[in-house]
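User: Here's a protein and a ligand (guanosine-5'-triphosphate). What would the complex look like?
Assistant: Let me lay out the input and then the predicted complex.
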Amino acid sequence: MKGIVIRSTGSWYTVGILKGERVERVECRIAGLFRIKGLNVKNTNPFAVGDEVEVEEDKGDYVITKLHERRNYIIRRSTKLSKQTHIIAANIDHAYVMATLIEPRTSTGFIDRFFVTAEAYAIPASVIFNKKDLLELDELDYVEQLMQLYRNLGYGAYLICASDEGDVPQLQELMQGKINLIAGHSGVGKSTLINALEPSLNLKTGEISRVHSKGMHTTTFAEMHELGGGGWIIDTPGIKELGIVDMEKEELSHYFPEMRDLLGACKYNGCLHDREPGCAVIAGVETGKIALTRYECYLQILNGEELEKEYD
Ligand SMILES: Nc1nc2c(ncn2[C@@H]2O[C@H](COP(=O)(O)OP(=O)(O)OP(=O)(O)O)[C@@H](O)[C@H]2O)c(=O)[nH]1
Ligand SMILES: [Mg+2]
Ligand SMILES: [Zn+2]
């Protein structure tokens, strides 16, 4: 039977099997990792939410026996400097990163890294700025500017208050009929938004720590939830960082849409747009065509510990 991984706790997987219009849920174990084709042992989770799998029944037990090829996925380094990787979710139609200016603070670098990761598999992506109600006028201006920047790059950008019913229908419409992923730091309001989209889910939400202004890691497993109007949304546990993986230095600029268009114009083949003379990207930053925050994030990823140093 073919199914889709709806929830993964690490040792048990809930797989949804389509029975006509209905999705039947079965609890599965794995048949023995090394007998399953197509698994990458560097991943901390052999199966991710969204994976399409084959399930067999064995004396009342359900066992996953095969992983179908992934159409795409969002992956990150498990911890800083770790060689292990973690697939956040697979087979996604639209990837949303939720960001907040305060309680907790999300940096533009985090948003940019998320978009780079989505670009690598050409997954349409958007940013949802949440907790609009907490923002002062100058902060609202700043968010508007960021939203304009991201829209100009081809991403969706929304500003909402997840607890305000009026803000939800626009997202409901966008998410209909698709497999949607929502990721972000702990406490930004991912589960709160999903509850607003689908109140019957009644997902657990958590307070923000007064001391650190950060979330308390309330959601602990990624899980896919069915939307009433059709489609799915994948709630994920809050993540601190988004280490970029599976990417070489020369590839990186291809995942910045504003750089992609200029790449042929650099003087040197294999220009990394760092300090090279005649670099069209650096010229683009100087004329303001490329936002400085975006370029700075590019350099951080390029020169950080994240990418394999194949060309050094
Ligand atoms: N003021 C305000 N608070 C919000 C809003 N959205 C969510 N919150 C609050 O933020 C806190 C964290 O919300 P959660 O939905 O648990 O956050 P999360 O992103 O799911 O966090 P993790 O599961 O830990 O990753 C809760 O106390 C929510 O009530 C909002 O738009 N405005
Ligand atoms: Mg949550
Ligand atoms: Zn260049």
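Summary: The radius of gyration is 20 Å.
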